[in-house]
Amino acid sequence: MTRDERFENGLTMLRRIDGEAGQKVIDSLADISPELGHQVVAWAFGDIYTRPGLPLRDRQLVTLGALTALGGCEPQLEVHINAALNVGLTPQEIVEVLLHSAVYCGMPRALNATFVAKKVFAERDLLPVTAP
Amino acid sequence: MTRDERFENGLTMLRRIDGEAGQKVIDSLADISPELGHQVVAWAFGDIYTRPGLPLRDRQLVTLGALTALGGCEPQLEVHINAALNVGLTPQEIVEVLLHSAVYCGMPRALNATFVAKKVFAERDLLPVTAP
Amino acid sequence: MTRDERFENGLTMLRRIDGEAGQKVIDSLADISPELGHQVVAWAFGDIYTRPGLPLRDRQLVTLGALTALGGCEPQLEVHINAALNVGLTPQEIVEVLLHSAVYCGMPRALNATFVAKKVFAERDLLPVTAP
Amino acid sequence: MTRDERFENGLTMLRRIDGEAGQKVIDSLADISPELGHQVVAWAFGDIYTRPGLPLRDRQLVTLGALTALGGCEPQLEVHINAALNVGLTPQEIVEVLLHSAVYCGMPRALNATFVAKKVFAERDLLPVTAP
Amino acid sequence: MTRDERFENGLTMLRRIDGEAGQKVIDSLADISPELGHQVVAWAFGDIYTRPGLPLRDRQLVTLGALTALGGCEPQLEVHINAALNVGLTPQEIVEVLLHSAVYCGMPRALNATFVAKKVFAERDLLPVTAP
Amino acid sequence: MTRDERFENGLTMLRRIDGEAGQKVIDSLADISPELGHQVVAWAFGDIYTRPGLPLRDRQLVTLGALTALGGCEPQLEVHINAALNVGLTPQEIVEVLLHSAVYCGMPRALNATFVAKKVFAERDLLPVTAP
């Protein structure tokens, strides 16, 4: 596969899971680091996300766990909470994921991630989230 | 629910997903911080893990993402890679989870977690892991 | 103790140390993750903070050290610098805590935390902080 | 104060709170980075620890909170759990500090720090730790 | 060297590499923690940055790697991306540094740092950054 | 460039900078996650390290800053302190890099990295490191 084909592959995946939000991130890199944009698309979304063996819903569960634990990744959490909804996770499940993560990374990071979810859900008219 | 009932609830869950490994961690806390042992069992496993709305397999995906990203949690990764196998994730899926996490937390943490998986899989006679 | 009693216990403690700021955080969780709000109150403030053996002033010293070192916890630092004042730490002591933490987590995290303290102290009319 | 006086100041403090353990760390830097050894002594212990306005017991509470939250600092936790005992914190208080920190940095880091405390307490014949 | 001389030394270095941005940070500490301001200047810039054996350009490469990996240090990245330009790193090199760091700390932290670079480069009229 | 060509490219680079140590890491992944081994070689060393615009010596400065700050990456620091020597950094410069990083990530992480350097330098008969 050529560099361009890897990029095209990644772009298809990026659009599928992140919609316009992912594209906007790549666009905003055009005048500062187009290569970082290329690597996010061609490597992360083209080479890794497209691999068989782990469905997209599972990948988003891992991603939410990792981004919540890392801390300071609120912009990426915003993109990937949208992505989580796009690949079939429900608002209730996402909220439960963030509560669960508190066990491993503590209350502050779980709270920060939950307030990002609140922003995303508000924009998509998904509030209030009711108990499962 | 009383404090003891919450603990019993948690112990049942702990045994179900972590088997003896979880029990050993709690036992080794007995002479230094029995209360931390109580909180891990009663709160983490009793109050959080037993909640409806997110299956145990999903919880382990989130846990692996969080522990890999945190770094320095090799003892907990060992327990939870065992747990992941116990709740139905395959070795191939676990390996893919750790590869996926490299996108978010970088190669060193993904490598460290993968070598913990290698140790766990060796003990359970699950090596080599073949491509999916 | 029942789930409701643990929550009531925590609410009393939360109001005592965080005042309105803590309540606001819980309120803002009501439409997104009332369970996370419950766990912060019932578990963190009800089960842990109320334990004997470590006075509230000591708990805030530990909390400030942990939040400063974690990074990316500015909203929680804001709440807990207020809490530190509420349980008897002086502005001079809080500033010294953040300077001390620089030894362990480096200058950037100490600076970020100190600028949160500046915001809190300004709101409470405690600036300038004079040398001890 | 001269560079040597700052170092002497720091060495006095280091011996007071860390005893031989601190001296051993400095000695082991002699053939690789004597300047790092100098900075730990002269700056951290000489300039910062000796400042008025925060008693040594308070400084160790902050230090334990920060080191637990950082993760991967087990060697430093070993030195500073010893230091905490040396400046008057009881085993019960130290164990409570580490439990408290779980609220902010999650269970894995609290567990890792607690097992370091177990090692230190065993060496000083302080096990088992009984409830306060 | 006296405390004041160490401070003067540091101030000269701070102005040389950070220009007005560094001075502003120190000024903004005057009413909250003048001692933290003193330590940043006298210790970090006076004692460490002025040491022989590592040129300033090399020190900024290390600093950018560390700040990107830490996460949550966007204010410090802003100061030090300016500093990197001031000591001779080109915009292309800085962008490449941040891309390189993605290998070690993952895409989110590399993206966050790159968007800080975009802000700094825009203020200094250095956009677009063209391929090397 | 094909997947195999990217891998061959990366392998050439890996051998050039990491020597046998890098190859050993890849080999040890063969029975657990050959794909992670492939990505480290083909992406990190093939796609990123081979890019023009930043010399290998500069890349190692960034890498050491990032790995020191991350914490818990001692195995990777061992590989990359060797790599730093291989691409022309002197022991004195490496030691200075780790001292410099203390400003940004605190003393514990700088100490941990320095003790990894001591191990590597001992194996390569480079101790004691003398002042520059």
Task: Give the helices and strands, then pairings.
Six copies of one chain form a homohexamer.
Chain A: H1 3-28, H2 34-48, H3 56-70, H4 74-86, H5 91-105, H6 107-123
Helix pairs in contact in A: 1-2, 1-4, 3-4, 3-5, 3-6, 4-6, 5-6
Descriptive account of the structure:
- Six copies of one chain form a homohexamer.
- Chain A is mainly alpha-helical.
- Chain A has two domains: 1-51, no CATH class; 54-125, Up-down Bundle (AhpD-like).
- Chain A has six helices and no strands.
- Chain A has helices at 3-28, 34-48, 56-70, 74-86, 91-105, 107-123.
- In chain A, helix 1 crosses helix 4 and helix 5 packs antiparallel against helix 6 (107-123).
- The longest helix of chain A has 26 residues, at 3-28.
- The first copy, chain A, is globular.
- The model of chain A has no long low-confidence stretch (mean pLDDT 96).
- Chains in contact: A-B, A-C, A-D, A-E, A-F, B-C, B-D, B-E, B-F, C-D, C-E, C-F, D-E, D-F, E-F.
- The A-D interface holds A 102-108 and D 102-108.
What's the number of structural domains of chain A?
2
Q: What is the CATH T-level topology of the largest domain in chain A?
A: AhpD-like
Distance between the ends of chain A = 44 Å
Residue share in helices of chain A? Answer: over 70%
Number of strands of chain A: 0
Mean pLDDT of chain A: 96
Biggest interchain interface, per-side counts:
E-F, 34 and 35 residues
Which regions of chain A are unreliable across 5 or more consecutive residues at pLDDT < 50? none
**Given the helix and strand composition of chain A, which structural class is it?**
mainly alpha
